[in-house]
Design goal:
about 280 residues; alpha/beta; six-stranded parallel sheet; two-stranded parallel ribbon; 11 helices; 10 strands
Amino acid sequence: MSQKILIFGARGWLANRFASFLPGATLTAVNITDPSQVDSILGNVRPDVIINAAGKTGRPNIDWCEVNRAQTFLSNVTGPMVLAEACLKRRIYMVHLSSGCIFDGESPSPGGWTETDVPNPVSYYGETKVRSEFHLLDSPGDILILRPRMPIDGKPNPRNMITKIAGYPSVINVPNSVTVVDDLLYTTKELIGQRRTGIYNVVNPGPVRHEDILTAYREIVDPSHSCEFITLEQFYERKVTIARRSNCVLNTVKLTDAGIKLPDAPEAIRNCLREYAKAVGRS
């Protein structure tokens, strides 16, 4: 890709994965809520494209966002608006990472939630991602919004869904969509190349349950792994979290119509687990 790319969110996992994947891309940790900092970095780098991978997801999880709403709003809503305005002035193409966590439950039609379905977020984190999408869609600039879901990678990381659920003693067992990070990187590059705008769900086709992932995890990575599988009702009865958790399946027809066919989720997850096993010395 010959275009000059600037990636926001240098302290984050996905921003660094994007920087490794896109040769020559510039990674920055400037505060996206500060118009002067944003204007300065855009003036210095003069990118053709920016990728916004900055924002609050909460540490260790989205419960943090529930009790730190002002900071979450600034990062997840105000920040993208500042970037969109700055990009519009300089005619820069903007890519924004949203989230599939803006939906919960069964979709209104078969095949999963589509890009045009009305979001029904169940957490404050999800609410902020919805608000940022609405604001960005109202912008006259060229903006691509991507919705990944439960990112899975072949390298251990606290943000990696494999690492997360392998460490839980109890795991909810309901259908969900997942996004393999390598496929997210590839898809983003392809959509940028096509200069697509609007919203795209970026998930690997096919719903999977956490039990499916952890069964493969025991087979490929750690035969000694064990956990308890529980229902969504049991999870909330135990009151182990502050924020409700999104569980949903996203539709991938729009992505396929753009000429991008990703590996089905079960196959892609097993490939990730083979890499994961090598990374932790279990291959």
